[in-house]
């Protein structure tokens, strides 16, 4: 023990002497005059390194001036578009937010029309974050702190319409005819792409130019969510106004998985060439390193509890600003393309349909088998919901009535053997019923089939043992022939479970 201590002391002394020698040597070197004035240093005037940097900067600046006026694509970056944003969040996290870029053809086409002076509509299909839940301003959907409103305001300031902008809660109205720009927030809390793929047209104007879709935290981390999400994107892209979609992915912590619908969605967005911007990629690494960062990203309630499902005002602002910077990078790229096009044609204007031509959608769905000939028809989803002005109208009805609990409306029966039929129209053969599932309302079993094909009937259970009540979709047909069909349903009453009972509640009838 003592031997070790004595050796240790000797080593310590030696190392102190050595350090003194090094410091002395450095002073000795600096006491010689150095020729380069930028490096000259005496004890009084220091900072040679800064002067060296100045020289380097001068050289770089000289070089930059030499490059031609049309800047390269690389300079149209998010951080060039908004340097403040990158200062606040770090360049790395802002750049990481671009999950998929794609061709941006539709987006540029939409922006080119805006730039040419045409009025435009921006609409939102999303969940409670998009709805602005917890922003605590009235109305949360359209207040200036809402990330989507921030995006609309950015575009509206650049490309103002005639008169005041039309700012609205879910609505199918458009004021483009009056030359006005419009913003419609069609988001619904707790609603995923299975509902929106069929029913988006009940919540936003179909004459829309840019649709922002935010459903990554409302759908789950399972492949079965790809189909409704793909149908949603297609249905939107198939609208006669041929809008661009921006896919926004936000994040929420207390879900079934840390990353939920973003996983199945991203592959579909790539296949459909839909640009995808993810706040999750920008902030999750920091959240995982430092839990306190959740207080920045998410809402903090008065009692100090962090609501890990809903973005804070900061989160709304940053998500909005990232998208705005992205839009600006597209405008920057378009300047470059348009300058080259004008040079090529010798004209002072560009032709939008030539430079930003509308490409056809992929002929097939991701889940289809390869078929060199087949092209799926344009999707025209239909959604007759008891909760919208467009209610399902029975073609035949024996024992069903309309009924409501508060603002929730149903077509309901309490008599086993009751039948109801609806006429439906389908393009790709999907017919669905949306109905209530509950553990407490004593719901029974419904049997449904198309036309006379009762042999192929499906049955759906109203009762379940999960401790919440929620609407759920069920496919009555997945590959019916295109065109009109009769959807027939018969209430069978209780199932084997003693908590089930003699009641059934239909919410909507949907087809695509
Ligand atoms: C850039 O980002 C900052 C920080 O989020 C924001 O305050 C500012 O309004 C943004 N500027 C533009 C032009 O979007």
Automatic annotation (TrEMBL):
Transmembrane spans: 12-32
Classification via CDD domains: SGNH_hydrolase (cd00229)
Keywords: Membrane, Transmembrane, Transmembrane helix
Protein name per UniProt: SGNH hydrolase-type esterase domain-containing protein
Native source organism of the sequence: Vanrija pseudolonga
